[in-house]
Design a protein that fits this description.
This protein has helices at about 5-10, 30-40, 50, 120-130, 140-160, 175-200, 225-235, 265-280, and strands at about 15-20, 25-30, 55, 75-85, 90-100, 105-115, 165-170, 205-210, 215-220, 240-245, 245-250, 250-260, 290. The protein is of the alpha+beta class. The chain has a six-stranded antiparallel beta sheet with strand order 2-1-6-5-4-3. The relative contact order is 0.10.
């Protein structure tokens, strides 16, 4: 076996896609992995890159096979790039390396290595979702909410937006759960999470902090508007919760803390709204206390 056939056999049997271009950016070689990633039935030999595929940076959508081609022996490394071939789009990691002429400093072409990570990205997104969301209600869980709040506080400080933070505890949760069991308790939590989301704007963020405690960030909301939201929530639960042909009275305790461009740290704001919610609960529930 000659040297060329030997290396071709190796390239055809590796898992990474290999696309070789000449100095005019015409395709001269494509291995089996690149064919699969691209969805090509056969290699588009002698076609230019612009005719065959597009490789874009994820942030600014700059074409990687163009102005950024390496001019020395250091390969261009890319991550999470967008690889488009006709109607097919993949997310790929990889590199572009310059191929020098034998016994010369001139450029003979370029070797593009691509690794399809589309499924890996989907799996990672799914895992991130499950880690940061409550499995029962689908709302953000405590850990996810705290991370969101940190980012939101930074944004509020920059643009000086007025927002509000609510903490809500279902007063009757323990009584309903004691009578109906786990199934009834879970149904009550799901029912309230739906009421909570129905009374908020699309941009607002809700979460479940644990047990029967929920929280919400209200965007672009002055204190008067925050109070109107809390009143709607009290009214919405006043019809009671029905489970297995029985209706249970429901009240909620709400702690309310306005957030301005001078907002402090997340821990301090969460502590203030928690204290306000506990004060409302100790007062008998069914009310709102401002922190």
């Amino acid at each position: 076996m000659n040297r060329e056939k030997f290396f071709s056999a190796i390239l055809q049997n590796i898992h990474d896609g290999i696309i070789v271009l000449d100095k005019d950016l015409c395709i001269t070689f494509v291995n089996a992995a690149a064919l699969k990633i691209s969805g090509w039935e056969s290699a588009p030999l002698d076609k230019t890159v612009s005719q065959a595929f597009t490789l874009l940076e994820p942030l600014n959508l700059t074409n990687l096979v163009g102005k950024k081609l390496p001019g020395n022996n250091d390969p261009l490394i890319f991550k999470d790039a967008i690889y488009k071939c006709g109607a097919r789009t993949s997310i790929v990691d990889g590199s572009i390396a310059r191929i020098p002429e034998e016994e010369s400093t001139e450029t003979a072409g370029y070797a593009i290595v691509i690794r399809d990570i589309s499924e890996l990205k989907k799996l990672s997104a799914t895992l991130d979702y499950h880690v940061s969301h409550d499995s029962l209600t689908g709302l953000i869980n405590r850990e996810g909410f705290i991370m969101e709040l940190e980012d939101i506080l930074d944004s509020i400080k920059r643009i000086e937006e007025n927002c509000g933070l609510l903490q809500i505890d279902i007063d009757s949760y323990n009584a309903v759960k004691a009578e109906t069991g786990e199934a009834g308790g879970n149904a009550l939590l799901t029912w309230f999470s739906q009421i909570l989301q129905a009374n908020l704007k699309h941009r607002d963020i809700s979460g479940r902090l644990g047990s029967s405690v929920f929280t919400t960030i209200l965007f672009d909301c002055i204190p008067e508007k925050i109070e109107s939201v809390t009143k709607r929530l009290h009214t919405s639960v006043s019809c009671g919760f029905s489970f297995e042909d029985k209706t249970f009275p429901v009240t909620i305790s709400i702690g309310m803390v306005p957030i301005s461009g001078k907002a402090a740290f997340a821990a301090g704001i969460l502590s203030a709204v928690d204290n306000a919610c506990n004060t409302a609960k100790k007062a008998g529930g069914g009310t709102t206390v401002s922190g």
